[in-house]
Amino acid sequence: MKSTKPERTRENLAVFDLRLAEKEMTRIAGLDGRTGPAFDHRDAGSVDLVNAMRLT
Asked: What pTM was computed for the model?
């Protein structure tokens, strides 16, 4: 752990108590990961286009 404050260490360790409801698990399982909302990240041309964009 990086934190030196006991309260932050407790907060960081609380992640191990995380539980997802069945509805949440079903929703996550439905995400196929093949395409994003804007482009297909597996298509080299799309990736090149996004990589060429400049973020300001």
From this structure: 0.39
Helices (H), 1-56: 6-13, 22-29, 44-52
Q: CA-to-CA distance for 7 and 4, rounded, in angstroms?
A: 9
The token duo for 29 is 């399982």
Mean pLDDT, rounded, for 29-36: 72
CA torsion sign, 49 to 51 to 52 to 55? positive
Q: Per the structure block, which two tokens stand in for 41?
A: 């990240």
Share of the chain above pLDDT 90, in %: 11
Q: Distance of alpha carbon 36 from its chain centroid, rounded?
A: 12
Could you tell me the two tokens for 6? 């006991």
